[in-house]
TrEMBL record:
Protein name per UniProt: Integrase
Top-level taxon: Bacteria
Coiled-coil blocks: none
Family: Belongs to the 'phage' integrase family.
The species this protein was found in: Alcaligenes pakistanensis
One biological process term in Gene Ontology: DNA recombination
């Protein structure tokens, strides 16, 4: 156990239920989270003979290797093409080995679980945090592209637009991911900045010609604040997102609602880990859709599978630079301290910066 417990759970099962209940209003998320937690719990008990709360870093490394080929297959992998229900004797946790992207998503979800259990005082530490640190020191086999081309960005948008909206849950999920991708790309934000922002951080001001402009105040890296221009197009996306979630009208100065709301409660911020999971879900879905519609684009699908939230920020900067936008505008919008060979004290005029993004940085939703 960790410090002072903030949940009443006395067993791992009770702790998992306390974690999962937060996502009960988002069936897709709830099902994905329960699946990954259940898989790990079964593996811990059957293969390692350990409680979930007793797993070590070495156990997690072994589990990640296990996901590449769950063995013995008769215990872990469903036979044939049938998908028996969970209560059936033929049910198994896996349909086969997990792809790299699916393994990465599983680790993200489990990291979210263990981080929350630490915060709740149920566990003393999160072994997966050590795993993340270790991976950052590892050298990649080859340099990879870290941004999306305009065509790749279009494929992602096409996938989001193809999502169903037959129920209120589906409608809100679609609106959430559309706004998530819109603000990460359109505002060139870091996820860490987005998940702590509020609707009250959006404000209006008039430029020198008395034209209304919308801005977002962001608490960024290095404990510094900056203003991010919200183009008319991006502000329209915010209005769309607000309306689907029952927030009518313009953002208000004292409005407490998060800029990115939790699926379970509109007064709670979406967690950083969940935001990352949503981004990976969309990139994986985009890759799968691309493979189905354009089998000859396998290499492009693999790029989408490897993409992450930070790629959207890099994509925004790259696309602005391709348009010939002043590097000082890009620097100030992304919140960089400096640019190569450019004095850090050279700042572009705010009106000019807002107009430049209005003219050159389009989301491109059809």
């Amino acid at each position: 156990m960790g410090g002072r417990a903030q949940i009443e759970a006395q067993t791992d099962i009770e702790a998992l239920r306390a974690w999962l209940v937060r996502y009960i209003d988002s069936p897709r998320t709830y099902a994905n989270y329960r699946k990954e937690a259940e898989r790990l719990l079964l593996w811990a008990v059957l293969e390692r003979r350990k409680d979930l709360s007793s797993l070590s870093l070495e156990d997690f490394l072994a589990y990640r290797l296990f996901l590449t080929d769950p063995q013995p297959a008769q215990r872990w992998v469903v036979q044939g093409r049938s998908r028996p229900p969970r209560h059936h004797a033929a049910w198994r946790p896996f349909a086969g080995p997990l792809s790299e992207s699916s393994r990465n998503q599983a680790v993200l979800i489990l990291n979210s679980l263990f981080s929350w259990l630490v915060q709740a005082g149920y566990l003393a530490g999160n072994p997966l945090a050590l795993s993340h640190q270790g991976r950052r020191t590892r050298k990649s086999a080859a340099p990879q592209q870290r941004y999306l081309s305009r065509q790749q960005w279009r494929w992602v948008q096409d996938y989001i637009q193809s999502l169903p909206e037959d129920s209120q849950t589906e409608l809100r999920y679609k609106a959430r991911v559309r706004w998530l991708f819109s603000i990460l790309y359109g505002g060139a934000l870091r996820i860490s900045e987005l998940v702590q922002a509020r609707m009250a951080d959006v404000h209006e001001r008039a430029d020198a010609g008395a034209t209304a402009q919308w801005w977002l105040h962001i608490h960024g890296k290095g404990d510094k604040w900056r203003r991010v221009p919200l183009t008319q197009e991006l502000f329209s996306e915010l209005r769309r997102y607000r309306e689907v979630h029952g927030l009518n009208g313009l953002p208000q100065a004292l409005e407490p609602s998060p800029l990115l709301m939790s699926a379970g409660a509109s007064d709670k911020h979406l967690s950083r880990a969940m935001a990352h999971v949503l981004v990976k879900q969309v990139f994986q879905g985009s890759a799968d859709r691309l493979r189905t519609l354009h089998p000859d684009q396998e290499s492009q699908a693999r790029v989408l599978e490897h993409a992450s939230a930070h790629w959207l920020r890099h994509s925004a900067g790259s696309h602005l630079a391709d348009q010939g936008v002043d590097l000082r505008i890009i620097r100030d919008t992304l919140g960089h301290e400096s640019i190569a060979t450019t004095n850090i004290y050279l700042h572009t005029d705010d009106d000019h910066r807002h107009q430049a993004l209005e003219q050159s940085h389009s989301l491109g939703w059809s």
